[in-house]
Amino acid sequence: MKKVRIGSGSGFWGDLLEPALEMAERGDVQYIGFDHLAELTMAILNRMKTKNPESGYIQDIIPWMKKLLPISVPKGIKIITNAGGANPLQAAKEVNKIIQELKLGPMKIGVVYGDDILPYIDETRAQGWKFKNLDTGEEDIDRIRKDIVAANAYIGADLIIEELKKGADLIITGRVSDNALYVGPLMYEFGWNYSEKYIDQIAAAVTVGHIIECSACVTGGMSNMWQVSERPWEIGFPIAEFYENGEAVITKTQGSGGIVNPWTVKEHLLYEIMDPANYMMPDGIADFTALHLIEEGMNRVRVTNMKGKKRPDTLKVCIGYRDGFIGEGLAFFPWPDALEKAKWAEQWVRERFKCLGVKFEELRIDYMGVNMLHGEAAPIEDKDFNEVGLRIAAKTKTREEAEVVRREATHLWTMGPIGVSFGIPLDVRPVVALWPSLVPREAVRVESHIMEVNK
Amino acid sequence: MVKIQLKEIVFARSGDKGDVSNIGLMAKSKNIYDFLVKTITPERVKEHFKGMVKGGVEIYPVPNIESLEIILRRALGGGATCTLRFDQTGKSMGQALLRMEVQVDETLLKEAEITDKEILRRYSPVSRSNGQPIKR
To answer: Which residues on chain A are in Cβ contact (under 8 Å) with B133?
Structure first.
C-alpha cells in the first residue's frame, strides 16, 4: 500500500532548527512542513513590511535554508513553509539567491499568496459581508476599522496542491493554515480532490496535520509525559507515516530524544481546539470523536477510523488592530515577611498612581510565587515564604501612561521595603488586539506561481 | 469513598484560542472517564475558577480517547496579545483545574495508580534500555 512520510520541522517562529536538520538527514521523509506563524506574527510582519517593502517575511528562513537545503535537496525532500508571512514573494526571492549561491539548482519554488484581505476589506463589506467578532459577537468592524493593521485569511491547501502538480520542489506561502502545510502534500500524493468521495480521507489528513503541526508538542514537549521523555534535550520532531487507506502512524525521527505514545497524541488531539467533533480547517472538518489510537510499538501510535465533513464555505480571518500599550514592572522581596512586604509595595504603587493621576484601561497586580498563575483558583498558603515577587501590569491608551507604570515600578526599588531586589526595567509594548472572524471563501483573492531557479 | 484532587486521576493540558482557554482532561482509566462525565459539569468548573472565567463553560465528551474537552470563554483577560496576565496563553489553566476536589470510590484511585505505574514501567528511559546506556 502506498504510504507517504511527512514531518513537522517547525511549530512556531523561534523553534529549534536541529530536529528539522536531523529529520532531513535520517527521518526518511518525503515532505517537511514548517509553520512559523502565530496570530500575532502576521501583525508584526505587516508592520515590518510597511517600514520596508523588502521585509515582512520570517527572516530566520535565510540561515535555516542555508543549512537545510544542502541536506534536503539531494534527497528530493520537499519543503512546505509559511515563512513567507506578509511577503511570500520577497521570501521566495531570498531563497532563490541561496539556492543559486549553494549551486543546488535548477529548482522550482512554488509561491502561494493573496491571503491578505486588508487591501479590499471595504469592498467585501460594501458587498454586504459583515466581519462579526467570533469571540465577542460584535456585529462588524466599524469601531476598530481605523486601527486595523492586518487582516489575513487562513487559506487552505488548494494552491499548494496546484504548485506541487506543476513540479514545485519547495513551496513558500503566506498565511496558509498550519494544517494545510500537511494536507496539501497528502492530497497531492494520493490524488484526492475536494469532492464528496474523499471527505473522510481529507479529514484524516486534517487530523494528522493537527497532531504533528506543533512540532515538539506531540513528541514529549509541554507534556504530562515530561518525566519519562528520553533525552528531552535532544527532542525529535514528529513524523506521520500516512497510508493510502486513510490510516496513519505518528512517530518521530529514528534515534532522536523525546517520546511519542498514546498520551502525547491524546494531549495534542485535545490541544487548542473547540468542539472535538467539528475541528474546522479550510480543507475539511475533522471529527476527533470517531478515531482510534493503537500503540504499535515504542514511539509509534497508529490512528485509524478518522472521519469528517466537507470543508466549510467560509475561511477564518484574523484581524489585528492597534489597542493601546502595556507597561510592566517587577520587584522581588526576600524572607522574612516576604508576602507582607509585597502587599506593602502593592499599596505603595497604587497610592503613587493616585498621586500622579494616571488613568488605566486595566491594572493588574500579582504576587509571583503565590498566586500569579492560578489566581483566584489557588489558595494562599499561610507560611513565611522564602521570596515573593510583585508584578505590576497596566494597559493604557497612550505610550506615555504605560511609561509611568514602568517608572513607578522602578522607583519601588529604592523606596520600597527592606531587601527589595530587582533586575532590569521591562520595555513598554504596543498592543495588537485580535478580532477573529470569517470571510466567504470566494472573496479571498488567492494566487500562486512557480519561480524558476536556474543552475 | 475518598476525597481527592483531580490531579490523582487525570492528566490535563491547556492552551488558548483568542480569549478562550481550552483544557483537555484525560482520564487515567475507562471508569474514571465515566466518573468525569457525570461529575465535571460546566457550573462546577466555572465555580472552581472563581472570577477568572468571565464567560460560559462548555464541556465536550471525547469517549474514544476517554477525555473531556473543556472550553472556558472570556477566560484569558482578552486573549494572548492584549492580556495583562503573565500566563498569556493559559498554559497553567489545565494545572489549576487539577486542584478541584472530588469524592471518588477507592477503586478509581487504584486504577489511576496502576496507570501511573504502567507509564513509568513502560516508558521511563531506564526501564526501556534495561539499565544499559541508551544507544543513539
So the answer is: none
Answer whether residue B133 is part of any domain.
Answer: no
Number of Cβ pairs < 8 A linking chain A and chain B = 155
Compute the half-sphere exposure of residue A64: CA atoms within 13 Å on the CB side of its CA: 23
Residue A454's pLDDT is what?
Answer: 87
Question: DSSP letter at A224?
Answer: T
> In chain A, what residues touch B97 (CB-CB under 8 Å)?
377
Domain regions of chain A by residue span: 3-115+154-312, 322-433
Which of A272, A295, A380, A397 is the mutation pick for testing B, counting most B CBs within 10 A?
Answer: A272
Domain count, chain B: 1
Q: Could you tell me the pLDDT band of residue A171, with boundaries at 50, 70 and 90?
A: very high
Architecture of the domain spanning A322-433 = 2-Layer Sandwich (3.30)
Domain extent, residue B96, equals 2-128
Q: Give the minimum alpha-carbon distance from A337 to chain B in angstroms, rounded to a whole number.
A: 24
**Is A250:A4 a contact under the CB 8 Å cutoff?**
no
Alpha-carbon span A76 to A29, nearest angstrom = 9
Question: At B136, which helix (H) or strand (E)?
Answer: none
Does B1 touch chain A if contact means CB atoms closer than 8 Å? Answer: no
Q: Which helix (H) or strand (E) holds A424?
A: none
Exposed e or buried b per residue across A256-269, where buried means at least 16 C-beta atoms within 10 angstroms of its C-beta: bbbbbbbbbbbbbb
What are the helix (H) ranges across A319-398? Answer: 338-356
Contact A448, A111 (CB under 8 A): yes
Residue A391 pLDDT: 96
Q: Has residue A305 got a pLDDT over 60? A: yes
User: Angle, to 10 degrees, between the axis of helix B106-123 and the axis of helix B30-39?
Assistant: 130
What is the reported pLDDT for A313?
97
Residue A275 C-alpha cell reads as 468542539
Q: For the beta carbon of residue A430, count every other beta carbon within 10 angstroms.
A: 14
Mean pLDDT of chain A: 96
Cβ pair A377:B48 closer than 8 A? yes
CB contact at 8 A, A416 and A331:
yes
Q: Please state, in angstroms and rounded to a whole number, the distance separating the CA atoms of residues A238 and A250.
A: 7
Query: What pLDDT, on a 0 to 100 scale, did the predictor assign at position B127?
Result: 62
Residue B27 located in a structural domain: yes
Residue A455 has a pLDDT of 78
A349-354: long-range contacts, CB 8 A cutoff, minimum separation 24: A349/A390, A349/A392, A349/A408, A349/A409, A349/A412, A352/A408, A352/A411, A353/A404, A353/A405, A353/A408
Question: What is the rounded distance in angstroms from the CA atom of residue A279 to the CA atom of residue A11?
Answer: 19
B18 lies in some domain: yes
Whole-number Å distance between alpha carbons of A209 and A280: 12
pLDDT of residue A423: 82
In a domain, residue B69? The reply is: yes
pLDDT at A314 exceeding the cut of 60:
yes
